[in-house]
Amino acid sequence: MQRKQLGAWVIAKDNPPTVGHVVQTAVAAVLSYLTARLFRLPEAYWAPMSTVIVMQTNLDAALPVSVQHFAGTAMGAAVGAVTATYFGESVWWFGAAVFVTGLLCVALRVERSAYRYASVTLVIVMLVTRSGSAPSVAIHRFFEVSIGIAVGLLLFVTWPKIRAAITRLSTIKRVVRENPLPRGRIRGRV
């Protein structure tokens, strides 16, 4: 593998980030974190991680990623909670859960990315040391990810309106600055 080939994989040709996309992603990440904190979810940082994952260039690109992330997380949380509850949380049962989840994805013809998200959720539910039970972690993980996805998609839908409002406010400020009100007396006021 040559250095030139590595650079070609990283340097954007077709879809470089824009300042607007960067602002949108940052706002969405902060809002999803605050929303997860509002619901007192113990690992609220998963919400902005999910938001960042689903933030694409437009809603048409974000929607399939969001659905795959949501489905994979739901599957991984369910399989992880059941496996940990009924069989234990050993690395061997974890491996079996990843295998069974993969077979489910094959049978259901689910996208590979959904399988990856399911497996990541399995890691968190079954292998991360925590104080709560596996089912509790699975439920929290599902809601943290769902909040991140929902906030990201909501911002895609509302962002054009937000940008238009900011543009209107900027225009109003410019017009007021360029056309100040006359100083002095205005109809009886001193």
Please render the helix and strand layout as text:
Blueprint: H1 3-10, H2 19-38, H3 46-54, H4 59-86, H5 91-108, H6 112-127, H7 134-178
Rg (C-alpha, Å): 24 Å
Number of separate strands: 0
Q: Label the structural class.
A: mainly alpha
- How do the helices and strands follow one another from N- to C-terminus? HHHHHHH
For the largest beta-sheet, the strand count, sense and barrel status come to: none
Task: Please tell me what the overall shape is.
Answer: elongated
Beta-strand percentage range: under 5%
Written account of the structure:
This protein is mainly alpha-helical and 190 residues long. It has one domain. The chain is built from 7 helices and no strands. The longest helix has 45 residues, at 134-178. The radius of gyration is 24 Å and the shape is elongated.
Q: Key features?
A:
single chain, elongated, 76% helix, mainly alpha, 190 residues, 7 helices
Q: In short, what is this structure?
A:
The protein is 76% helix and 0% strand. The chain is an all-alpha fold.
